[in-house]
Amino acid sequence: SESEYKFIGKIVEEVSIRIRCIPFHVANYPVGVESRILEVTSLLGLGSDERTNTVGIYGIGGIGKSTTARAVHNLIVDQFESVCFLAGIRERAINHGLAHLQETLLSEILGEKDIKVGDVYRGISIIKRRLQRKKVLLILDDVDKVEHLRALAGGHDWFGLGTKIIITTRDKHLLATHGIVKVYKVKELKNEKAFELFISYCHGLPLALEVIGSRFFGKSLDVWKSSLDKYERVLRKDIHEILKVSYDDLDEDEKGIFLDIACFFNSYKIGYVKELLYLHGFHADDGIQVLTDKSLIKIDANSCVRMHDLIQGMGREIVRQESTLEPGRRSRLWFSDDIFHVLEENKGTDTIEVIITNLHKDRKVKWCGKAFGQMKNLRILIIRNAGFSIDPQILPNSLRVLDWSGYESFSLPFDFNPKNLVIHSLRDSCLKRFKSLNVFETLSFLDFEDCKFLTEIPSLSRVPNLKSLWLDYCTNLFKIHDSVGFLDKLVLLSAKGCIQLESLVPCMNLPSLEKLDLRGCSRLASFPEVLGVMENLKDVYLDETDLYQLPFTFGNLVGLQRLFLRSCQRMIQIPSYVLPKVEIVTSHHRRGVRSSNDAAKVSPKVSANAMCVYNEYGKSFLNVYSLNVSSNNVIEVCSPSWNQDEHKLKNMGYSLFCHPIHRRRVIMDKVRSNEPSVHLWFRKKFPRIALCCFFETGESFDNMVLDFKLNVLINGTKQLSTSCVYMFYRKRKTDQKFFCDLQCNMDGRFSENEWNHVEIVGMSCLLCN
User: Fold this and answer.
1) What would the CATH number be for the domain defined by 666-768?
2) Where would I find the AAA+ ATPase domain in this sequence (predicted)?
3) Are 472 and 452 in contact (CB under 8 A)?
4) Taking the model in full, what pTM does it have?
């Protein structure tokens, strides 16, 4: 008797719980883990639910703290109502902030998406209020500041009775400061027979064993002996020296790649890393492969570069040793205090090649503005959220990457002329204007997103290789130079939210363009004349614009697949000759889309929400087999009755319909089934089958996408498979029914002299937001 959607909800809840209980991968060779698990679980006091219990695990980097935490998680996870494992807190706090970590914690424990806390103090209040009655297993991995603990697990009263908290850190004093009494020190592995030789050479660290072993793999006995002699000479030195032996085996290009990753790119996407390595002058593909083979880095399942913190520390120490006393004489700068020192003391030199940092605006750089003047070899400059006492007077012309988010000056230095610049990004800056760019053969990426003071884009005619141009949310931008319409290499042009922009460019011929995004340009009243055939443009977004018609030359967009027209101010007239090329036309929440009266065929997929289709315009859509008229109060598909219209539409080629249930009574004859499939037999002639399927959402959603699939099998062989996607953009409960006439699709696909078995299977997938 339970309604279907409630039953589905229970299934989703059960599956979600089981997914959360999927065990983590602990280690490829979990040697010695069992004894550590016993120690930690004993400290946790699993048999008692009287209070929250916290255990700290500490030890040097690479010793196995995270491995132990994952193993304990796998053993006890099914004893808790909710679970959260926050890995890599030290790095994530730097990159994303504590508020983001609080949001992640709440999302994983509560199973809710898009939780926002605003700031850390409000996040603390929300965690205490929403989790104080939940029995939670919380694991905080790689904590290096007491502020992390105060923001994520500040007190035992934050969580319900029986909660267990595990914290891993290198700093035992941090645990004591937070009042954690129960602690476990992870010690070096004991020498076991199978690993006695290797473990002794690597000081009991499994990580070092992996690195050393990969260096020996496939080598001759003489190489083994020689290498072991070298390890014996550094046996009593710090593990840094042991790992550095693998670094010393690299060639100069591979060393540079290794140091860049250690200093800047750990945990970044591999594609982004390769691009910046190339711009630094390295052969990224070969070098990445060598580092992977030597176990110095790994590429994880999410295509991110991963470097163990012990190896990263070794790489950064190598750079520090380039000049232990003066950071300005090092090749790479990433530590904020070193960067402040170099800029404020004007200590820049031509040794510096890369600066990447995320500074804090609450601490301004008090400088003369000329510190970059001596950095003649600076190739990559990436600065986030920095505050400066005065504007920069000089920027080095050697730059290949200038990515300065929050740039506070109204303009760039007058004599800045970086002829080898490839990436130029000043998003969220105070830039008011920039001069017409000189000849920049190499510039491919230009980003001025969220530049609120920028009013116009000058000529880009001398930037022939530009591939991406981002102008999103430049709310005072009102003019874009005509030359932007004739950039042969431009692949992406995005100007979302430019609310003062009335015209993009008068004309365009962009043969390489693949995506044009003008969403939210509320004053945009005209579309450019398309002067040449553009085969590569697949997606055009014109949502929330003031367009009322498209030019005749719009038909030159011969590769167009998706045209988005949601929430437009006025009715848009689309030339009928455009429609055969368009797979999907969405026009939700708007007054309508008109087609010209010229007869033309439309491609088989048309989402016709808010579109006048039949009576006035139906004759232009002779090829449509899937027509969605649901969730719409202004559809004109019917005249006197649905019976007559369905007959007329079928004569025009329609065979599948969807509309709200309340529009019409439904009479079911012959076959009725509550199952997702229907079975029947026939011979000679395929029977007249009018299939009717009901779908009930039950709940009210802002956005809903229903993917309905229909398969027809004759004698076990699939003879027909059709798929229709229906999108609803109104917050309302909606019950739908689907009609399908199979007669016109099935003739001639069977043996007329034998009995034939038919199975009709309907499947649906609902995605809601």
Assistant:
1) 2.60.40
2) 51-189
3) no
4) 0.61
